[in-house]
Design brief:
mainly beta, 4 helices, single chain, 9-stranded antiparallel β-sheet, 5-stranded antiparallel β-sheet
């Protein structure tokens, strides 16, 4: 599908603009600031780091840590830990678990999800800060997707916006992938598109359709929450799929080791039914827009907060 680029950018900015969210989410506060470092950007709340966007010398840019008030991270970065894939009790069972990241399991037959020398890289080419509304900024980055030989496959434009909401943190994410080299094929795959890896503990998984536990895997839902009971208390993340996304609502990949991923291209692979194949082809010059929202919370998930966000998203024009 080809979309006018200016129109796509307009949609993306309207999704992230805090003034729009403030009208439908009165509890949202613009009290976070950004501080750029060498290869990273810190997101600060009262001078405490609640998130760090990392982009230098990595195969896939990611956000770690991710917390509510600068305390223990709700997520963990398995890319920095030794893996013991043969150990069933090892929480980090895949190097793909880099806290909060974007990737694709099979784009033009290249794996842009799992780190490794035989897989693709998402390389940041530019970083700046935008203000979609008064006194509010977001992280704006551009990337090249490169295959294992270093050849460019396509381009991506991405924005992150952070704010406080109902005792937690909201993270808005908008992604634009442009087929500026050749046609693109988003093949049906288990892996993609936005993943989080929760910190170690006992997970409780629920979705928008009232399902719980591993029953949520391979199902379509508007949102999924994973709350982990760690040694020092409960914390979790609710991830929301936007109605404007391709193949909405997304198929979800979840695990008992804290993985949660929204995948618009995982129909057959995750459900086990070939009739659900969600492969998508985009012609040269075409663009796909994706948008997601994370609600990072301490303690159990707040049903009223989740309901408020879900209603706000449902009101966005498709």
């Amino acid at each position: 599908m080809k979309l006018n680029r200016a129109f796509v950018l307009l949609i993306m900015l309207s999704v992230l603009a805090s003034s729009a969210w403030g009208q439908v989410l009165p509890g949202m506060k613009r009290d976070l600031t950004y501080k750029a470092g060498d290869g990273f950007v810190d997101v600060l709340k009262a001078d405490k780091v609640v998130g760090r966007y990392v982009y230098k010398d990595v195969q896939l840019p990611y956000v770690y840590p991710l917390s509510v008030d600068g305390g223990p991270s709700v997520t963990m970065d398995c890319g920095e830990l030794p893996l013991k894939n043969s150990a069933p009790d090892n929480w980090c069972d895949s190097p793909a678990g880099r806290s909060f990241w974007v990737g694709l399991g099979k784009l033009n037959d290249v794996d842009f999800w799992t780190p490794g020398s035989n897989n693709g890289k998402i390389v940041q080419t530019d970083l700046r800060f935008d203000s979609p509304s008064e006194q509010y900024w977001n992280i704006h980055a551009t990337y090249e997707y490169r295959n294992p030989r270093g050849k460019k496959v396509c381009s991506e434009e991405r924005r992150y916006a952070f704010s406080s909401y109902e005792g937690g943190i909201l993270v808005s994410l908008a992604v634009i992938i442009t087929a500026d080299v050749s046609d693109l094929t988003y093949s049906d795959s288990v892996d993609g598109l936005v993943g989080v890896k929760l910190t170690e503990g006992k997970p409780t998984i629920t979705d928008s359709e009232g399902r719980t536990g591993m029953v949520c895997r391979g199902k379509r839902a508007a949102w999924v929450d994973c709350t982990v009971e760690a040694a020092d208390g409960k914390r979790g993340i609710t991830m929301f799929d936007f109605p404007i996304n391709p193949n909405y609502p997304a198929y979800w990949n979840v695990s008992e080791k804290g993985l949660m991923a929204a995948n618009p291209f995982g129909g057959a692979a995750l459900s086990g039914d070939a009739k659900n194949d969600s492969t998508r082809k985009v012609e040269f010059g075409g663009t796909l827009l994706f948008a997601y929202l994370l609600y990072v919370h301490e303690g159990a998930a707040n049903p009223d907060a989740i309901s408020g966000i879900a209603k706000a998203l449902a009101a966005i024009p498709k």
